[in-house]
Amino acid sequence: MNAPENTQTLSFIPASEFKQRTTEAVADAHLRQSFRSAMDFLMAKRAAQFPDADALEAQRALAEHIRRYSLSRLPELLEKLERQLTANGIQVHWAENAEQANAIIVGIAQKHSAELMVKGKSMVSEETELNHAMEAAGIAALESDMGEYIVQLDGEKPSHIIMPAIHKTKQQIARLFAEKVPGASYTESVDELIGIGRAVLREKFMAAEIGLSGVNFAVAETGTLCLVENEGNGRMCTTVPDVHIAITGIEKVVEKLEHVPPLLNLLTRSATGQIITTYFNMISRPRQPGELDGPKEVHLVLLDNGRTQAYADEQMRATLQCIRCGACMNHCPVYTRIGGHAYGTTYPGPIGEIISPHMMGLAATHALPTASTLCGACGEVCPVKIPIPDLLIRLRAEATHDARPGHAPLVGQGAARSALMDFVWAGWAALYSRPALYRAFVWLATRFRFLTPPMQSGWTVSRTPLKPAPRTLREQLAGRHLKT
Amino acid sequence: MSARDSILRRLRAAPPGQLVLPPDVPAFYAAVREQAPATDRAARIELFCERMSFWRGEIVRVTPGNWAETLRVLCVTKGVNSLLYGPRGPHAATLEAAGIKGLKPYDRPVDEWKPELFRDTDAGFTSTRGGIAETGTLVVWPDDKEPRLMSLVPPIHFALLDANAICDTPFEAMSAQGWISDKPVAMPSNALFISGPSKTADIQITLAYGAHGPKELVILLLLGEGES
Ligand code: SF4
Q1: In A, which residues are within 8 Å of B195 by CB distance?
Q2: Chain B residue closest in CA terms to A76
């Protein structure tokens, strides 16, 4: 695909501008309405899937157990996966970061003189900004998941990991298609809009030399890549082109096929409230002699990109239990109000707040873990029981302190530290550890309360000014005691 | 050091953490099964039909004696002018004898006829390896006789399902195939669970069918003679 209008603006919005973007997002009534209704819908769909709280608890405990077990043996399972995939004829590549992953994929595409890559849904390829690297190499990378296709066509990024175009109305999509898809006329019928996408993309599936996909579960013992999807574009991308490249984070491996059904069950029910998706695709081998279709080559790229940093810490390792269901964002009061784009990261919402610091460093992401009321909804719905609120608190601390003794510093450790804040806390500590000083301070603060400024920076934007009481609590209590 | 070695080295350098024993998934499902009332064949068929209909799969009850004729009539009523089938597949002879108009054998590598497959093939017919009642799912196992794209590219997918091969759950279906066992059989190159026609809710969470794959999934549910 050569049409320049279909290229994506790929650079991340720096996460350091997070606060300003949240203000803009909250002021956008239309956006808030889109997310509110979509999240209400998804929450209701999920809730309907779990009528029995005890049964759900038992399933979550099992899923958590499976994920923790897999992580506890991660290096060994990765080696086993590599051995088994190789024995099955699937080529395995390892990448430490986004650049390496992209270079591997560009290299494979160039070896096949590819001009077009069709992509099934893969958040990891969003993470590496693969499309950008492909374009730089002169190879078109076309998203084929309907939602991803729509956001790519409009030069945007996904705003939700499961529903990438959730922020758009059908009217906006109708205008977009009429404007950008050759031969498409304006229609607000969802069926017709999907029909337009279908027609365009089927031609592309046929033409593409390379198909790219993500992976939901990689089974070490059998050497099987499992993909979950409703649309069939994942099957197209992994079956029609001559070469299939799958890309995944190193944490997605499980030991045995029997570990998959419990995770699959919770994944689809937590994500969209479906008991199963239309397709559950298990790929174990490229096209075999005598077979008439299927890719002639299958590759798997295993990506680290900060995951080993999370792994190195016993508490933060739980971050890697994630199966990317999106339930934590659907239930997050902050995500629901600001939407996915405001985060400026590939993974928005609670999971993004705990994983992005490892991928991008705390310097760029330290504001994210503060975007939480710590209401606990994310941790409660997480099908693999990641203690997300605890991890948010931990990352807030890491952003403002030196590494704990015996722990290696995180990338960007202490990035949110400021001299002013250190000074204020040092003063606070001094006051509260010296009774005489403390008494003197509160006496002065109450007697000179008339000096408190009426405008108190950010606080008074939407709140009344803070003012000390006329008498200290101690004095008030003493007075009460005398009266009785 | 290669990327592989440094990633593995970093993982191995991490503190081992608490010992986690292997989860016993079969025992978990056995316990669930004990609490649920035992299912029989009729109940499984009923639940399968209910769930598959929920996914918009169309169920047609057939018998060994009439399924091919039923398929012929369905092709006529749905206006199917070309029906793709596996000429070496298990049902080839029956299909060929049924007088279906436009029967098209999948008999050469897809590379030789991709445009025709995509643009000029109305329907595909495949066998199945089983069904799953709880989720309303077909277990499909493409191979050299019934290739992968037959159940994906044509706008209509006809699938023949033996009612005796319906299991309760995905776990039981994987076990029935021998994929989950103490001595698991090798996984096929590609194995699929299919639950209804392809669909998407990516535009304003409005459900639309026929996203990229089949717009219709028709299950020929094979019952005993005199049962349907
Ligand atoms: S953190 Fe939990 S709830 Fe959030 S996406 Fe991952 S698995 Fe789902």
Answers
A1: 276-279
A2: B8
* Ramachandran assignment for A256, one of left (phi > 0), alpha (psi -120 to 50 degrees), beta (any other): beta
pLDDT at B228: 59
Q: What is the mean pLDDT of residues A387-394?
A: 98
Which residue of chain A comes nearest to B10, CA vs CA?
Answer: A308
A328 CA distance to ligand 1 centroid (A)?
5
A53-85: pLDDT as tens digits: 999 999 999 999 999 999 999 999 999 999 999
Specify the residue with its C-alpha closest to ligand 1, atom 4: A328
What range defines the domain where residue B132 resides? 39-222
Q: Cβ(A146) to ligand 1 under 6 A?
A: no
Q: How far apart are CA A154 and CA A149, in angstroms?
A: 9
A327 lines ligand 1 (CB under 6 A): yes
As a whole number of angstroms, the distance between CA B59 and CA A305 comes to 47
Torsion over CA: A16, A19, A22, A24 (sign): negative
SS3 per-residue string spanning A231-260: CCHHHHHHHCCCEEEEEEEHHHEECCHHHH
Tell me what pLDDT residue A11 has.
42
Residue A157 CA to residue A155 CA, distance in Å, equals 7
**Test mutation, A154, A258, A259, A314, chain B, max B CBs within 10 A:** A258
**B165 assigned to some structural domain:** yes
The number of distinct structural domains making up chain B is: 1
Determine the CATH number of domain A10-308: 3.40.50.10420
Quick one: which atom of ligand 1 is closest to the CA of A321? Answer: 7
> Is B125 strand, coil or helix?
strand
- Binding site membership of A266 for ligand 1 (Cβ less than 6 Å): no
DSSP character at residue B143: -
Any CB–CB contact under 8 A between A64 and chain B?
no
pLDDT by residue (tens digit) across B58-104? 999 999 999 999 999 999 999 999 999 999 999 999 999 999 999 99
Inside any domain, residue B211? yes
Structural domain contains residue B66: yes
Domain boundaries, given as residue ranges, for chain A: 10-308, 423-479
CATH number assigned to the domain comprising residue B177:
3.40.50.10420
pLDDT digit string, tens, across residues A212-235: 999 999 999 999 999 999 999 999
pTM for this predicted structure? 0.93
